[in-house]
Design brief:
The strands form two sheets. The protein has a six-stranded mixed β-sheet, sandwiched between helices. A six-stranded parallel β-sheet has the order 9-8-7-10-11-12, with helices on both faces. The chain is of the alpha/beta class and 287 residues long. Bound molecules: NADP nicotinamide-adenine-dinucleotide phosphate. The site of NADP nicotinamide-adenine-dinucleotide phosphate (NAP) has 25 residues, from helix 5 and helix 9.
Length: 287
């Protein structure tokens, strides 16, 4: 990759950013599109986010950015405007410069939907879905499922108050969606049997020693099991689901499609998804 005086700069704001797979994926896409653009990770401590964003407002060759942990919610307050999705989800993962201002978007939810449709061949419309977790990832997924006209959404959390608060938010946004707020202890074989899709939106499974969220052996084989985690590529939840005969999908597809959609917002070009998929796979496999 060569950087010239005309290079357009994209950045990833996060802390830490050292393990991010996005630079390799986005730079492969820019090369494939013949764009003189570069994507650079910026490690920004939480107390420095506002100053980092102010700097971006001053850079004329700033092409766009991504926002990752721990800044997705704080970014809401330091940008000039928000897309309807970012405002409804309450988090930003993509920054788009427009006429000297910075607009916050959220492609996590739409990236999730594209992954479920294109990588797993499943259509969430009319489905019964179980979602474990109530954090930023879960809120983006819940919003996307509402947009996709999912029939029923069960939100499972270790924190009943957070599950109830997300339930109320979803019912306000999507009056036709049936939403339940439940505890992890409510995940029984009977409940699991009702689910067409089950999604883990917690970090549980990133470490091999993590205690399971529920008894994974109680999963039904007709359920598509999705884990937002992509490292490791197969969590204990996905491994046991596969052993039960379930179709499974890890978080790499969501990472791919949220990145492809961010690139399209920045450049106005169609994302080279297969090139990005390959670059991401090489990065995640450590090649
Ligand atoms: P977050 O905002 O910190 O939320 C984490 C959620 O997990 C919270 O609801 C938290 O519950 C719950 N949780 C944490 N530890 C738990 C445990 N031991 N048992 C039960 N629940 C637990 O994080 P996030 O940004 O939503 O990310 C969640 C996961 O999704 C991470 O693994 C992240 O890497 C992944 N993710 C992937 C993508 C992708 O593109 N593939 C995108 C976004 C997120 P409390 O509220 O009770 O603490």
């Amino acid at each position: 990759m060569s950087v010239t005086g005309r290079t357009t700069l994209c950045v990833l704001l996060g802390y830490p950013v050292t393990h991010s797979a996005s630079p390799r994926m986005q730079n492969a896409a820019f090369r494939s599109l013949g764009l003189d653009w570069v994507y650079v990770p910026w490690g920004v401590r939480p107390d420095a986010l506002a100053r980092a964003v102010e700097a971006l407002k001053a850079i004329e060759n700033f092409g766009g950015g991504n926002v990752t942990i721990p800044h997705k919610e704080a970014a809401l307050g330091v940008l000039n405007a928000l897309s309807p999705e970012a405002a409804a989800i309450g988090a930003v993962n993509t920054i788009v410069p427009r006429g000297g201002t910075l607009v916050g978007h959220n492609t996590d939810g739409t990236g999730f939907l594209s992954a479920v449709r294109e990588e797993a061949g499943e259509e969430p419309r009319g489905r019964r879905v179980g979602l474990v977790g109530t954090g930023g990832g879960a809120r983006a997924v819940a919003y996307a499922l509402g947009q996709a006209e999912t029939a029923e959404l069960g939100i499972f959390s270790r924190n009943q108050d957070r599950a109830e608060s997300l339930r109320r938010h979803m019912v306000e946004l999507f009056p036709n969606l049936e939403v339940l707020a439940l505890g992890l202890q409510d995940i029984s074989a009977d409940r699991l049997r009702r689910l067409d899709i089950l999604i883990n939106a917690t970090p549980v499974g990133m470490q091999a020693a993590d205690p399971p969220l529920f008894d994974y052996k109680a999963l039904s084989d007709h359920t598509l099991v999705v884990d937002l985690i992509y490292r490791p590529s197969e969590t204990p939840l996905l491994r046991l689901a596969r052993a039960r005969g379930c179709r499974t999908l890890n978080g790499a597809g969501m990472l791919l499609h949220q990145g492809a959609q961010a690139l399209e917002l920045w450049t106005g070009r169609k994302a080279p998804v297969s090139i990005m998929r390959q670059a991401l796979a090489e990065e995640l496999e450590g090649a």
